[in-house]
Amino acid sequence: MKDSKKLYTIKEISELAGISEQEIIRMIMLKKIPAVKIGKAIRVKEETLEKFLDSFIGGKGPVSDKEEPVLYTAEQVAKILQLSVDNVWNLLKTGRLKGFKIREGRSSWRIPAKSLDEFIKNKINV
């Protein structure tokens, strides 16, 4: 079962998306985020979480078009910073740009908007 997919808790989703646990529960109850029930626990499959985060980032989900995304993909950051995606991955791997992986694979990085802002401010002040 080495290839098995991870199941995320509501708390983990909250931390990854930057949304309160109550809001995550609300979205699950409204079936905006498909979830599975295991006993009394609620879990969200990795692929479901990735789709939710992609829609959340792209403005197609719960965030309106007028709001900035809470999380960016490495590809989006590359466009913003006018760098190659490989350079952004290098920044993430070395810790110069703060982000996290939601699963294994190169396109699974997520960068909080706050981290991107801090990175840009640090580069401007150099």
What does this structure look like?
This protein has two domains: 1-65, Multidrug-efflux Transporter Regulator, Chain: A, Domain 2, CATH 1.10.1660; 70-126, Multidrug-efflux Transporter Regulator, Chain: A, Domain 2 (Orthogonal Bundle), CATH 1.10.1660. The chain has six helices and six strands. The protein has helices spanning 10-17, 21-29, 46-58, 74-81, 85-94, 113-124, and strands at residues 7-8, 36-38, 41-45, 71-73, 100-101, 109-112. Strand 2 (36-38) and strand 3 (41-45) form a beta hairpin. Helix 1 (10-17) crosses helix 2 and helix 4 packs across helix 5. The longest helix has 13 residues, at 46-58. Residues 60-66 have low confidence and may be disordered.
Provide the descriptors you would attach to this structure in a database record.
6 strands; single chain; alpha+beta; 2 domains; Multidrug-efflux Transporter Regulator, Chain: A, Domain 2; 3-stranded antiparallel sheet; 6 helices; 126 residues; elongated; 48% helix
Mean pLDDT comes to 80
- Run of helices and strands: EHHEEHEHHEEH
Number of strands: 6
> How many discrete domains?
2
Which regions contain 5 or more consecutive residues with pLDDT less than 50?
Answer: 60-66
How widely separated are the two ends? 48 Å
Strand content: 15-25%
Please state the structural category. Answer: alpha+beta
DSSP helix fraction: 40-55%
